[in-house]
Each structure stands twice: as C-alpha cells, then as structure tokens.
Amino acid sequence: MVTFFNILIVVMLFNVIIFVHELGHFLAARWRGLRVDRFQIWFGKPIWKKEINGVQYGIGWLPAGGFVALPQMAPMESVEGKNREDEDPLLPVKPLDKIIVAIAGPLFSFGLAVVSALVVMGIGKPKDTVESTVLGYVAEDGAAAKVLQVGDEILAVNGEPVNGFLGSAAFDSVKESVMLSEGDKIEFLVKRNGEEKTLTTEFSIPGTKWYKRKGMREVGIWVENKIILAGVLIGGPAENAGLKTGDQIISANGELMRSRQRLMELIKNSDSKELLLVVKRGEGEERVPVKPLTPTNLEGAQPMIGVHFERGDEFTSTIYHPGPMEQVGDSVRMMWVTLSKIVSPTSDVGIQHLSGPVGIGGVMFDMLSIKDGWKRLLFFMVLFNVNLAILNMMPFPILDGGHIVLSIGEILAGRPIKARLLEAVQFVFFFLLMGLFLFITSKDIGDRLGGGGGGPEELEWPKEATS
After folding, report:
1. Fewest beta carbons within 10 Å, which of 21, 47, 223, 341?
2. CATH H-level superfamily of 229-311
3. What angle do CA 71, 72, 75 make, to 5 degrees?
4. Would the pTM count as exceeding 0.90?
5. What is the mean pLDDT of residues 336-347?
6. How far apart are CA 138 and CA 141, in angstroms?
7. Which pLDDT belongs to residue 467?
8. For residue 82, is pLDDT > 70?
C-alpha cells in the first residue's frame, strides 16, 4: 500500500510539473490573442479528452512531457496531431507574441522552482554529506593504490579545492571531482604527515552490462569509518568465534582498521586463513581469532565471517534552511557542470548519463522511501524545474528556445519561414528527440534491472564453522 501511494505521489508531481510549464504557454497565448486548439499532458493519442470553450484538454498515452497546440506559432500537426478545422484562415502572429508565448513555459517552470525553494527554506532539507577528506581506505587493486595512502587528507583535485568527500551541491567534493574529471590523469593535493604533496594517478571505469549506463571514473578510495557489528549471523564463523552485536573492530592481524572496506578486503583475500581481530567491547578490548569461510549455498561467494556492519557514521546528516537563491544557484551550477562535461571530448560523462522520466521517477520514489524523503523531494522539485526551464530554452526546433530563435530570425528576415519547411524541420527534430528519449529511458530501465535478486535467506557454512 505504501509503495502504491509513493508511486501515485511521483506520478502526480510529474503531472504538476508538466501542467505548470504548459500553463505558462496557455495563459501567454490567451493574453496575446493566439488561438489555442488543445492543452494536453503527455504525447500521443489521448486516453482522455474533453472540449471546453473550443479547447480540447487531454492526457496522452506516451508519458513524455506535454504541449499546447498553437497553430499560429508553428505547424506541429505531424507531431501533435491534426488541429481543429476552421473555415476562417489563421491570422498571422507577430514574432514578439511568439517569443512571449515561448518563453512563458520556462518562466513558469522557474517560478515553480522558486516557490518550491521558498517551501524548502521554511521546512529545511537534509544535508547528507561526508565532510571529512581523510582517507581510511585505498583499494589494493585500485588505480590510486601506488600513490595515495590511508591517512592522507585530500585538499584539492586537479587544482580545485574540495568541499568534503561526497554530497556537495556544487559538485566540488572529492567523489564528484573524480567522477567528472577530464583528461588521462587525476591530480591530488594531499596533506601527509603535516606536509602537502601533489600526487598524480590514473583512474578506472567499472564495467557494466550493455543495457546499463557506462560506469563513472573512480580511483578506489573512501574516508575513515567505524567498524561496528550491527548483527552476527547464526552458525557463522563470527558467532562461533564469540563476536557479538555492538562489537567495534579495532585491528586485524596487527593492522589498524580505519574502514569497513579494508576489513572486508582482508576477509575476502584471507584464503580462509585465520584473522586475529582486536575488538572493543564495552570499556575493554578483546582478542578474537576468526577464520573466514565461504558459504556452501551461495553461488559465486567469497570468504566471509557472517556479520552485518553499522553504516553511515561517516555521513553528517543535518537539516538546514538554504535560501531560494542558494538553491536555484546550486541547481543552475549542477546543470551547467553536467552539460559542460557531456560536450567535453576529454570527459567520460555522456548523454547516457542523463535521466528520463523513468530514471527521474525512480529517484523520486527512492527519496520517498527513506527518512525525511519528502523534504529531499521538495528540493528535487527545485532542481528538476530549473533543469526543465534551462533545457527548454536550448535553441533547437520543437523546444521553446527553438521557437524563440525562429521568431528572431523572422524579425531579421522580415518574413516568416515557409510553413512546409518549418513543419519538416520540427518533425525531424521531434523524432530525433524521441530517439534520444527512448535511448535514455532504456538506460533508466537497465540500471534498475539485474540487481542480482539477492541470496538465500540463511547461509550454510562448511562443517568446520560449526564444529
């Protein structure tokens, strides 16, 4: 029931976003005296429609935006369907009126972003960031293994100062700086033993299935975190060794443990040989030998000790109240960085890393499924509407920016573009846009498939684990 309710919220918010954008075009068209034939949410043949005062209102079957049919703006019948038959010829519209109508949609989207930002300022939003940049883990097989060390404090990436390790709204944290970096190398400025060093490393891109998005750049690092047991599996090596929920693992085989990832790496590479753990329990410490084993009923399993870890202590989660200008500014900055990386030939960010309705809806659904998710969703409304406004202002046919460019061209030329030519151009770009939409949507779906399906509810261990 909760899942259905969350899906319903996501669909409603999508419709609100589309409705407000198209409402801008609709009201501006009425104000400037243009004829409005249809007001439709989503494309395709209407699954519901109703005519009121000469305007057909409807919902299409293809969940990809919406439109207001304005036959005096540009011939769009090949995309939007046939307009209303009328014996009287359509009166010409001034280019200025076309520009006003075209810009009204993005303006209303931007207005919705500002309204959402005011609400966010009032109720606050979670700030989930990893503020520390002190490394607690450097993967043995990672790209940075020969360069960076546990204990290094990262000060800058590629010459740009960093703001935390993860979660910066300005995309200037360590994680995002690595993912969005350009060129063949990544330069780190670190503080090691009180001395600043500039170190250069390569990077790797994890492989993905063909139907998923290409992986992003990584170097195999993470910040310090505590290793506290949240659970011990019945019958596993950890339980038989005497480990208990709440134990904090301090070291393994004499090596100080500064991250969960490093402990898991040691366990995986143990070749089922005994590890000597030093465990903090209450006010004291205990030495606990434990032998990792591979479950017999888990396909492709590696050695493990049968525990769950508490996670997230490295994150700082607070509620803060950013002003509307800060929220809108962060959204514009994120949009600009994303687009600039997509067009850069030295970046590994591509069109496939954008999200369509399925991906965006999935993110919104995920937000509703976690603590304070509705507050995160409100800020997402700011980000989404700012992005919608900016994307629609791009100077491509069928987009609002394209209408504005054509209208400016009409002013400069002193005459409108031929209707047949304009309709052909609009038709071609519509199908190019739909092709892009389907490609991105396929990646949205692909990223949510093939999650592995989980393992058995109970692990079965070799006999030596229970002897």
Report:
1. 47
2. PDZ domain (2.30.42.10)
3. 50
4. no
5. 93
6. 9
7. 38
8. no
Structure confidence by residue, pLDDT tens digits, 175-214: 999 999 999 999 999 999 999 999 999 999 999 998 999 9
Q: What distances in angstroms separate CA 255 from CA 252, 259, 276, 300, one per listed residue? A: 5, 11, 10, 28
Token digits for 278? 């030093």
Alpha carbons 301 and 263: distance in angstroms, whole number: 17
Which fold does the domain 131-224 belong to in CATH? Pdz3 Domain (2.30.42)
Residue 252: enclosing H or E segment and its boundaries?
strand 248-252
Q: Give the Cα-Cα-Cα angle 99, 102, 108 (nearest 5 degrees).
A: 125
Q: Which amino acid is at 262?
A: R
How close are the terminal C-alpha atoms of the chain, in Å? Answer: 45
CB-based burial, 423-447: b 16+ in 10 Å, e otherwise: bebbbebbeebeeebeebbbbbebb
Q: Report which of residues 228 and 369 the model is more confident about.
A: 228
Per DSSP, 134 falls in state B
Same fold, 131-224 and 229-311: yes
* Residue ranges with strand state E in 146-194: 153-157, 160-161, 186-192
The long-range contacts involving 210-213, CB below 8 angstroms and separated by at least 24 positions, are 211/442, 211/443, 211/445, 211/446, 211/449, 211/450, 212/443, 212/446, 212/447, 212/450, 213/352, 213/353, 213/443, 213/446, 213/447
120-165: pLDDT as tens digits: 999 998 888 999 999 999 999 999 999 999 999 999 999 999 999 9
Q: Where are the domains of the chain?
A: 2-124+369-417, 131-224, 229-311
- In this model, does residue 353 exceed pLDDT 80? yes
Contact 196, 190 (CB under 8 A): yes
